[in-house]
Specification:
7-stranded mixed beta sheet; 7 strands; 280 residues; alpha/beta; Rossmann fold
Length: 280
């Protein structure tokens, strides 16, 4: 997936996230985490940040790189509740402007810096971060190994890498299953998902240790189903809007992907999990 397509996806579809995914309040573009502590989507979106911060053992002394920060939800959360310093990067200039405004409104702009940068090739110094944080952003990398290599470069020894994302359960799907996965992923600006095994192998290759993986598919299932239910009437309306000239093809494909991701999940073609690893 080329850079321009990823930027277009997020810039064109931000309005849908705002309408359907509590974007203006939660500033989140991730799936969320549903457990006994969650009652609403807003709760789940916040809860995922809490769970990831707990696993990564974030402290006020940490400098965090938010790799693929979206509109700044996780960065703002970490700065507000953990008082750490966050450097947040995204490919989208629009997202940088939105995130900067939201950080100022939240009163944490002194703790967070937003920049346009590719997380596979950053300008940060070697060994400059305590944590690299990637939430549903690393899937967009055509070469996930390039991201892991860059994360290893910028992390201090003993630094933590945490990634929450979707992972493929099969290497080579055929026929209808291949079509379903491609229909989903292309609409969301993703070339392909890595398998858990291949992602772990890349971590080992770059000298990460204490590697853990937690399958939390059941904790994101309610969000996957919610997206599916939203998509069914919305696809029809979006196609009508596209014909009328006030919706784009990218926005319609985003909704079609929302349908396909749930259908693929029910077929167990992918799972959702959290990797955490320590730089040796």
């Amino acid at each position: 997936m080329i850079r321009e397509e990823i930027i277009q996806y997020y810039d064109k579809c931000e309005s849908d996230y705002r309408l359907l995914w509590d974007l203006d309040h939660s500033h989140a573009m991730h799936a969320g985490f549903w457990d006994e502590n969650t009652r609403t989507l807003r709760d789940a979106l916040r809860r995922e940040n809490e769970v990831l911060a707990e696993i990564a053992q974030i402290t006020a002394e940490d400098r965090v790189l938010d790799a693929g920060c979206g509109v700044g939800g996780s960065s703002i959360f970490l700065a507000k509740y953990y008082a750490c310093q966050v450097d947040a990067i995204t490919l989208s200039e629009k997202q940088v402007k939105t995130a900067t405004h939201k950080a100022e409104a939240a009163g944490v702009d002194s703790n967070v810096t937003f920049s346009v940068m590719d997380y596979t090739s950053t300008t940060f110094s070697d060994k400059s971060f305590d944590v690299v944080w990637g939430v549903e952003s690393i899937c967009h990398a055509q070469n996930k190994g390039a991201f892991i290599k860059e994360a290893a470069r910028v992390l201090k020894p003993g630094g933590r890498l945490i990634v929450a994302d979707g992972f493929a359960t099969h290497v080579n799907n055929k026929g209808k299953e291949h079509y379903l996965m491609q229909r989903w992923l292309r609409g969301w600006g993703v070339s392909a998902l890595e398998t858990v095994e291949s992602f772990e192998n890349e971590l080992i290759k770059e000298n990460f240790e204490e590697i853990t993986f937690r399958d939390i598919t059941q904790n994101v299932w309610p969000s996957a189903k919610r997206l599916y239910l939203y998509s069914l009437p919305a696809i029809v309306l979006s196609k009508m809007g596209e014909c009328a000239g006030f919706r784009t093809k990218a926005q319609t494909e985003n909704l079609q992907s929302a349908r396909c991701q749930y259908e693929a999940l029910k077929k167990k073609l992918w799972l959702y999990g959290i990797f955490c690893a320590v730089k040796r």
